[in-house]
């Protein structure tokens, strides 16, 4: 990650992703503290925008647990960096099962997302790695008609 500290905004090449690190750290600390105060609540930080190990460490308060990724390269990058509680937040597809299998095998906690009943069938017909079970998050459509299984 390049540092742009001390540079003028007009001297930075584009495209560039700039983050107010202090604001980001404060927001993450605030959310983690809020979840802690609520009891058994976990914050699962979405890495979709920053896609950096450094950002993931800040989001997890240094625990390297409870992230959501949007792509396999992200999931694999975080796994290689020692993160161990990753939700692959993309709808489950048969063509993804080889990589899901590898990540399930590698990590103590790796989760897949089911958005249609077909995803359940894929898991029923695919054995997990030895001594492992599939960990599944069910996405429920709460009325926005974007994706997920109907709440009804």
Summary, kept brief:
The protein contains five helices and seven strands. By secondary structure, the chain is of the alpha/beta class.
How would you summarize the topology of this molecule?
Elements: H1 21-37, E1 45-46, H2 53-59, E2 67-69, H3 72-80, E3 86-91, H4 97-106, E4 110-114, H5 117-124, E5 135-138, E6 140-141, E7 149-150
Parallel strand pairs: 1-2, 2-3, 3-4, 4-5, 6-7
Describe this structure in words.
The protein is α/β, with parallel strands linked by helices. It has helices spanning 21-37, 53-59, 72-80, 97-106, 117-124; strands at 45-46, 67-69, 86-91, 110-114, 135-138, 140-141, 149-150. The strands form two sheets. The chain has a five-stranded parallel beta sheet with strand order 1-2-3-4-5. The chain has a two-stranded parallel sheet with strand order 6-7. The longest helix is centred in the N-terminal third of the chain and has 17 residues, at 21-37.
Span of the ends, CA to CA: 45 Å
Structural class: alpha/beta
Q: How many beta-strand elements?
A: 7
Give the oligomeric state.
Answer: single chain
What keyword list fits this structure?
two-stranded parallel sheet, 5-stranded parallel sheet, 152 residues
